[in-house]
Write a structure and sequence with these properties.
alpha+beta; SH3 type barrels; 3 domains; five-stranded antiparallel sheet; four-stranded antiparallel sheet; 3 helices; elongated
Length: 288
Amino acid sequence: MAIDIWCTRCGSHLDWEGETIPIGPDRRWQVSFRWTAAMAGAAVRRRLQVVIGAARTALSRLASEARARIKRPSAPRPATGRPRLPVPRPPALSASARALLAAGAVVMVALAAVVLSATAARTSNGSHPAASRTSAAAVPAGSALAAAVPAVQAASGVRFSTGSCQPGRCLQFAGEVHGLNAAAVEFSLGDGRACAAYLSRERGAWQPVAARCAPASQLAPMIGRRDTVHVPGNCANVRKSASLDGGVVACLGDGTAVTLDAGPNASAGHLWWHLQGLGWMAQDFLLR
């Protein structure tokens, strides 16, 4: 409901379409529902226009600020840490320099091999050289292996072969140990048994001294294995050096267990083995 005002100048009611209510002698008011709806719609439109205008203004301001930030140059960041120094590059080597370096490398490798061989040599009281092991598959003429084969074949009754064969049917090279003018060559039968030949070097030729076969774990004398002194009713001398001239440091009775850590050395017609922590003993007292 709204109040409609009488227009004095035009002599009529404004948008009159309702009931006339007498208010006073000079003025009259009308109630017009259509006019009321029109006034309410106008108020809503004005409010919407204000809100839309404010929104447009805010959006325009935000867009302007965004464009300003994009165009604004960023300030350079201050440098932190230490300045990087240029890394010098080595000059390129000439062909002659490269060849000289290669030759030096070869010499260094050879020297290293000599040093390692010398370091591997063990000495006991400065008198015995280290044993060396080889695993040759062939049988070089004049070698300790060539001299050991006939002796071991005679002791075992089994032939030697460099190829494959059934267990227990042939002897196969297992390794050899070299001392001073002496060697021990080991063979395997492939069935848990092993044989060894002991040789001395005289006038440049290898000569068999003894040969024996036993279970592989009990084959002795051999470096790194335990052995037993065999001298029934007596004792065997242990000497400072591998010769009969070496001073006696101990006398071990029959059945004494020992461990061999060097040998064999040949001297005065005997082969000598070094007993760990003791001294040298003739092989005659170590063979069963």
